[in-house]
Amino acid sequence: MELLEFARGPAMNVAMTVFIFGVVWRLVALLALPYRGIKSRPREGVIPEGEISSGFKGVVRRMWPYPTFVKAALFSTVNGYVFHIGLAIIVFGFGPHILFFKNLIGLSWGNLPNNLVYAVGVLTVGSLVAALVHRLVDLPKRLISTFNDYFSWLVTFAPVVTGLLASAHLGARYETLLAVHILSIALFLIWFPFGKLMHSFLFAFSRGVTGIRMKHRGAQI
Amino acid sequence: MTAQKTRTGVSFDAQGDLSDDQRVINAMHAFVKDFGLSAAVHMESCVHCGLCAKACHFHVMTKDPKYTPINKLKPFKKAYQRHVGPFSLFYRFFNLAPAVTTEELKEWQELIFDSCNMCGRCTLICPMGIDIAELVKEARHGMFAAGLIPERLALMDRTTRAWGSPAKGGTPRHVCGWSYSRTVGADGPHDPRLGQPGDTGG
């Protein structure tokens, strides 16, 4: 079996299966834990129904730091946006990726110009490198970093770089480059449920719970 | 007083005469028992961005990375991964999150109690919305169950149990810096219901 055939077939099938079952398992195991509620009485004037909507408010409010912290959090926030939006543009805006989704789920949409996606790819690589350098030089960040952080970075970085190389036909035969690119995505999908990449789902729950709690205490969200 | 030092020279107080193993078991039981959906979601969501350090007074003033708020919860995150999280079975089987030791809990006493006033600034700056201050509170419950809280708090606990208030009898003067023996007598507390320093009170 050719490497490309293996990547497109068994490797991708296994990766998708692990991804789906892993994500479902992690979410179910988490959400099945009892909700202990908040034992204190709500601050005067706070009605329980309002607490639920404050959960949604909490999710939206955390998209940008509170004014007090804008300066301190500027690099992390802006750089975070650059590579998150960059990744979204690459994954959902590149023609061949849209074809992949069409084969997978039957849905397709218009693609962005290839050159624009390549430029975004280069920008995303730069942003991810900046994120890694920041993790290595910022002392608190370095102290709390674990294998999870570095490996999650690697499996995010690898598909972007191998994708750019495959597009540019640089370094090896196109088929080999494409196979390596697909295998790097398979690795990303396999790691996804086990590491911090799960924050893609968990951020909403985490922010929502705190939004509800802040409203309960009568704090401004 | 009961102040002792760990092997690395970190001061800590201990109450009662529990064995080291029992202290860890008590801490983990209390911690795991308290764990519900919201605490678990917060334990799972951290992306280790380190922004909480930039909001913490203790880190801002000292620049010491150990005061990074999420770092103050390290032993309890290990306990969560090992005993509660969705992959706890794997963590135990492959020893990916080694069991918490008493030594770690003793070392973390300073970080959990003395280096956090639960102001909640870390909660406000966290892009994931993790209520770190609330998690510190949960961790303190675990430390109390282990008999590993600062002695000044243990005394307040004993006073509250005896008199229904932490601010009665000789307690305030003791807290303000009076020596224990001068406040309550060289032979120990003048009210037998207070127990001896070192008792967890139950």
Descriptive overview:
The complex is a heterodimer of chains A (221) and B (202). Chain A is globular and about 70 Å long. In chain A, 75% of the residues lie in helices and 0% in strands. Chain A contains nine helices and no strands. In chain A, helix 1 runs parallel beside helix 8. Chain A has a single domain, classed as Fumarate Reductase Cytochrome B subunit (Up-down Bundle), CATH 1.20.950. By secondary structure, chain B is an all-alpha fold. In chain B, strands 1-2 form a two-stranded antiparallel ribbon. Chain B is globular. At the A-B interface, helix 1, helix 3, helix 6 and helix 9 of A face helix 2, helix 3 and helix 8 of B.
Short description:
By secondary structure, chain A is mainly α. Chain A has helices at 3-31, 48-61, 70-93, 95-105, 114-137, 139-144, 147-168, 174-191, 199-216. Chain A is globular and about 70 Å long.
Q: Keywords, please?
A:
heterodimer, A: 221 residues, Fumarate Reductase Cytochrome B subunit, 9 helices, 75% helix, B: 202 residues, mainly alpha, Fumarate Reductase Iron-sulfur Protein, Chain B, domain 2, 2 domains, 2 strands, 2% strand, disordered C terminus
Strand fraction of chain A equals under 5%
- Give the CATH level 1 class of the largest domain in chain B: Mainly Alpha
Structure summary, number of beta strands of chain A: 0
- Which pair of chains forms the biggest interface, and how many residues does each contribute? A-B, 47 and 40 residues
Give the count of helical stretches of chain B.
12
Structural class by secondary-structure content of chain A:
mainly alpha
Give the CA-based shape of chain A. Answer: globular
Cα-to-Cα separation, first versus last residue of chain A: 56 Å
Helix-strand makeup class of chain B: mainly alpha
What share of residues are in beta strands of chain B?
under 5%
Task: Give helix % range of chain A.
Answer: over 70%
| Biggest beta sheet attributes of chain B | 2 strands, antiparallel
Query: What is the CA-based Rg of chain B, rounded?
Result: 18 Å
- What is the highest CATH level, the class of chain A? Mainly Alpha
With strands numbered from the N-terminus, the spatial order across the biggest sheet of chain B is 1-2
Total count of strands of chain B: 2
Instruction: Tell me the CATH topology of the largest domain in chain B.
Output: Fumarate Reductase Iron-sulfur Protein, Chain B, domain 2
What count of helical segments of chain A does DSSP give? Answer: 9
Strand and helix order of chain B: EEHHHHHHHHHHHH
